[in-house]
Amino acid sequence: YVDHGKGKGVTVKLANGETAEADMLVGSDGIWSAVRAQMYGEEIKKSNGNLKRRQGCTYSGYTVFAGETIIKTPDYYETGYKVYIGPKRYFVTSDVGDGRIQWYAFFALPPGSKKAPSGWGGSERDEQDDPSENLVDYIKSLHEGWSSEVFDILDATPPASVEQRDLYDRSPELLRSWADGNVVLMGDAVHPMMPNLGQGGCQAIEDAYVLTETLINVKSTEKVQEALQDFYKKRIVRVTIVQFLSRLASDLIINAFDTPWSPHDDLGKSWKSYLTFFWKPLLQYVIFPGQFAYLYSYHPTGNMNNIPKELEEKWKIEHFKTSEEAFARVAETGQVTAGPSFFATEQKTP
Question: 176: which DSSP letter?
Fold first, then answer.
């Protein structure tokens, strides 16, 4: 892009070689942002030899496998989100509607431990490291001794749907603005974060709201640069806190959790096992309530009164209907792998 200066807008060069003119440019093009690379003088996806840093991002210590299946678990309508935690790994399931359960298997492995295609950006299935390997069986082998609920989910998952991505995040941009001239960054382009609190997309939505709120009263292009700097100042504190909380949640799982001590078996006997046992009530009654109280503290539109309750009741009815239809369809025809890549969903075109 070319920034023409105060009040003169931006010329943007597109991937197909065409150009476009605009009053401003919003770089919301993801963690390996081309807009960010130009603004901060980075090289897109450039990494050091061991892949622990890429384009200024730090490897989190985790690679994640992800998949999706349609399965009616015994508590499908009562439990929308589950986390199973073990030494150096954890497994998450989430109800995403229409009978579907999305799952994520996180492992503390070196970056570049490639098994499955990433799917990011619509990659093809032929990127699998060993096309003959059953990825579901591989993931099951890393969860020996875990809850049968994990295996039920994995056994119902078509192996061809499994994808993988190494997880990177960034330190908060406290010393340089997200905006430069008539160009501004938002979302993962400037504050990618670990997915433990589910805040990557949420913070991008908040960015969009605050940016809109900041620009709505700008009546002249002469004021755009000042407005973009105001946007950065409004967002940096909250985003920094959320980035910290997300990374803290990830680091605790890697460094502080182990198989919890139990009087009923001999599996958890290390000091981390005892620490994990005593962590549980602190997590449940102090840490989790505190962090979610902060995350939910941002409600710029004010009190919605009974609207959330009404939407919840409406959603429950629709959720039950579409889920039962999906369960019946799978019972008749079996699981199928269809639709866009899990990680490439954002690349869908209208």
Answer: S
Query: Nearest 5 degrees, angle CA 97-CA 102-CA 106?
Result: 155
If you search the block for the tokens 């889920």, which residue do you land on? 323
| Residues with Cβ within 8 Å of residue 223, at least 6 apart in sequence | none
Tell me the three state secondary structure of residue 180.
strand
DSSP-assigned states of every residue in 314-327 = HHHHHHHHHHHHHH
Residue 101 CA to residue 90 CA, distance in Å, equals 16
**Cα–Cα distance measured from residue 236 to residue 187, given in angstroms and rounded to the nearest whole number:** 12
* CA 232 and chain centroid, separation: 22
The answer to whether the CB of 283 falls within 8 A of the CB of 276 is no
**Is 261 within 8 Å of 276 (Cβ atoms)?**
yes
Residue 95 tokens read as 């109800």
Task: List the Cα angle 286/97/195 in 5-degree steps.
Answer: 45
What pLDDT digit, counting tens, does each position of 122-140 carry?
Answer: 445 556 778 788 999 999 9
Alpha helices in the chain (DSSP H): 34-40, 135-141, 148-155, 200-215, 224-256, 271-282, 288-295, 307-333
The secondary structure of residue 261, as a DSSP letter, is P
Please give the Cα distance from 179 to 26 (Å, whole number): 9
Question: 198-234: per-residue pLDDT in tens?
Answer: 899 999 999 999 999 999 999 999 999 999 999 999 9
φ, ψ for residue 164 (rounded to 5)? Answer: -145, 145
**Widest distance between CA atoms in the chain:** 71
Query: Under a CB-based contact definition with an 8 Å cutoff, are residues 20 and 11 in contact?
Result: yes
